[in-house]
Amino acid sequence: MTTPYETRQGTSPIILGFPHTGTDVPTDIAERLNDNGRILADTDWHIHRLYDGLLDDVTTVRATFHRYVIDANRDPEGGSLYPGQNTTGLVPETDFDGKAIWKDGQAPDAADIAARLRDFHAPYHAALAAEIERVRAIHGVVILYDCHSIRSHIPFLFEGKLPDFNIGTDMGKTCDSAIEQATLTVTQAAQGYDSVLNGRFKGGWTTRHYGRPETGVHAIQMELAQSTHLQTEAPPFAYDAAKADRLRIHLKDILVRIEQIAPGLKR
């Protein structure tokens, strides 16, 4: 079994989290996926590449396993992020279109979920928590910026077209307002893009779990519409370098600005 996470340590007060870019699926689990599931459509395609090199000496923690194995951005207790709305759970039973991903009778049971929590979810979050403590020890403050993407049209999850930049702070609870405002300022000024703060995506479990501004730990989620950096939002989900280069200018601006804010956030 491959290591469930990759960590790159830096000394910046920023940590980039990548819970959904992994595509590793152990053979015994892959054999239980149906043809639709094996497409792995709900990957955050190329997001770690998109952010690579944007900020000097930044720490990154990336899950290498796919979210169909277990979703690293869901509550390990199984609680819903968006009660009353369509979403996918800790171990998804369907894709983002509401279509089954497991062969008949092969959906994970409670024992499977417990094993995957132990082998994948818990190690990833142990690594992320360790980096948060290490960076906070250096600076007295840390900003976790959780990196995500999703197709811009998914009727099962939301109506119409998703904005290009979707900033999530759980209605301002997970980070200082200066971080939220700096991020929004960049996205609103980005020509040719639209953005929303705490719209359909208000931050996943990672953002809500770690974001405790009163302890010096701030967290913010950025959900990007995949139309901003992919050639098409369908297989093979190819990276569009020209689109990505335009987008990276704004992502770098965000990261540089919030890094500059960090020293003023010390308790």
From TrEMBL:
Any single Pfam family the record assigns to this protein: FGase
EC top class named in words: hydrolase
Residues annotated as transmembrane: none
The EC number(s) this enzyme carries: 3.5.1.68
One Gene Ontology term of the molecular function aspect: N-formylglutamate deformylase activity
Superkingdom as given in the UniProt entry: Bacteria
Gene3D superfamilies: Zn-dependent exopeptidases (3.40.630.40)
Keywords: Hydrolase
NCBIfam families, sorted: hutG_amidohyd (TIGR02017)
Designated name of the protein: N-formylglutamate deformylase
